[in-house]
Amino acid sequence: MCTNNVNKKPGSITYTQMLNSKGGIECDFTVTRLEAERFLIVTGTAFGRHDLSWISSHAPTDGSVAVRDITSSMACFGLWGPKAREILSSITADDLSFGYMQARFITVGDVPCWALRVTYVGETGWELYPTAEFGLRLWDTVIKAGAPHGLVPGGYRAIDSMRLEKGYRAWGSDITSETDPYSSGLGFAVRTDKDFVGRSALPGIEGTDQRLCCLVLSDPRSVALGNEPVSLANGDIVGRVSSGGLGYSLNASIAYAWLPVDASAPGTAVSVEVFGESVPAEVRADPLYDPTGARLRG
């Protein structure tokens, strides 16, 4: 079912999609192999029921696979940033040297939890997963340890700003069941040497006529939010914004938009209609922030 290879050693994390029969992206998540026959799937906050339904409806019916939703029994905290390692090291005796896209079971303070070395904001850090009854205890432990380092809680809008800077796609806006991985810039997560639902429908990068592109607007005060028209210099409307926002680290108004291939090259001048005003913009190569990935690998 997964486009990527999840048959890796226990402790490995894989970013992958699941496709429908037409090659559209139905699910977008990470799969962590906890044990030889036990996997943890982490998806977006709003998509749990959708993904659970999709997986359950396509799982084998011979009893060889059991799918269970454990969302309500777990808590999740993302500890990310340049001081994340220093903070976490001060409250655990466990070895934190395991690399990016790896997971280990550790104890933070006196709270046992899974630590996933993964990020949706482009900075070094971990997603920490204790059982629900230990959630508040873990929160208090991390907040107290982080206070001397300037740690502050951040919500969805902070995460959304940083994921735009890092070029991470959002299912339901940037990518949907009608968009394929190649045109979405996610071809790196497709393994064509294996079978999966939708594989035969994938057109290949040369066969798609649209691309999901990163745009930077000329005025950081003009922020696109989604569905704004995108026009070429001659005034022709050629696409629409899928998501956007202000990138605070870069002080830039960033938008992702679906454009035809011949308008998708970095450097292409376009304009975005923001609340009735035509704002000049330019197609940029992504990610805009830390393009080598050095910060998230820490």
UniProtKB/TrEMBL annotation:
Coiled-coil residues are: none
Q: Which GO terms describe its cellular component?
A: mitochondrion
Q: Which residues form the Aminomethyltransferase C-terminal domain?
A: 211-290
Q: Which SUPFAM superfamilies match?
A: Aminomethyltransferase beta-barrel domain, Folate-binding domain
Q: What residues does the GCVT N-terminal domain cover?
A: 1-194
Instruction: Output the Pfam families linked to this UniProt entry.
Output: GCV_T, GCV_T_C
Signal sequence span per UniProt? none
| Annotated Gene3D superfamilies | Aminomethyltransferase beta-barrel domains (3.30.70.1400), Probable tRNA modification gtpase trme, domain 1 (3.30.1360.120)
- Kindly provide the name given to this protein in its UniProt entry: Unannotated protein
Q: Which organism is it from?
A: freshwater metagenome
